[in-house]
Design a protein that fits this description.
The protein has 197 residues and is an alpha+beta fold. Helices cover 38% and strands 10% of the residues. The chain has five helices and five strands; from the N terminus they run ααβαββαββα. It has helices spanning 3-36, 59-74, 88-96, 148-158, 184-188; strands spanning 78-83, 121-127, 133-134, 162-163, 175-177. Strands 1, 2, 3, 4 and 5 form a five-stranded antiparallel sheet that branches. α2 crosses α4 (148-158).
């Protein structure tokens, strides 16, 4: 066998051995991480932790919802909270509205993709002096020269809410949320905000 063929064969054998050793080392690390319980944190889309099921508004959001109702009432504005926590099934039904069921499209978020599903969002409307519930952003029932809707938004922002009306791609004018710096993907993976401020 000539020298160049022998060197080529040796080089292939070294590459194969390197690949086998690398695969073996990675397998050992993978098994070790599984046993340690950290493997879920390595791969995108897997749970960070086991999270307790969510069944209502987060305590900080609920507290600020009540404060918002009281603060707007002091300004002569009555608001109605039309949505708070929503289950994933309820969110899917709302997503289907205007698509596979009757009505207008009101959301682009499927179940698990809305802050409502994690108890971190509320929707509001105004109650008129006649008792009607309206989504009229121009009304000024307290007659102070400012639209009541925007007064509610201003107070909500002071309390730490983010307003869906500020979203460029799909404004959601009744929507207020507190995301605590967490993305939907982090929430889906089990990360949760602290129970207190």
């Amino acid at each position: 066998m000539n020298t160049s063929k022998r060197k080529g064969k040796q080089k292939k054998n070294r590459s194969l051995k390197t690949w086998i050793v690398a695969t073996l080392i990675l397998s050992i690390i993978y098994v070790w991480l599984q046993q340690k319980g950290d493997i879920d944190n390595m791969w995108p889309g897997t749970p960070i932790q086991d999270a307790a099921p969510i069944t209502g508004l987060h305590p900080v959001v609920a507290e600020n919802e009540e404060l918002l109702i009281r603060k707007t009432a002091r300004r002569g504005i009555e608001i109605v909270i039309t949505h708070g926590y929503r289950s994933s099934d309820e969110q899917d039904a709302l997503f289907n509205q205007g698509r596979s069921s009757a009505g207008n499209i009101v959301t682009n978020a499927r179940g698990g993709e809305s802050y409502h599903n994690y108890g971190l969002a509320i929707d509001f409307a105004l109650r008129t002096p006649e008792g009607d519930v309206v989504w009229d952003m121009e009304r000024d029932d307290n007659k102070n020269g400012q639209a009541d809707w925007m007064e509610v938004v201003e107070l909500a922002k002071e309390l730490g809410f983010t307003w869906g009306g500020d979203w460029a791609n799909f404004p959601d004018y009744p929507h207020l949320q507190m995301d605590f710096g967490l993305s939907i993907n982090e929430l889906k993976r089990g990360k949760r905000p602290p129970e207190t401020k």
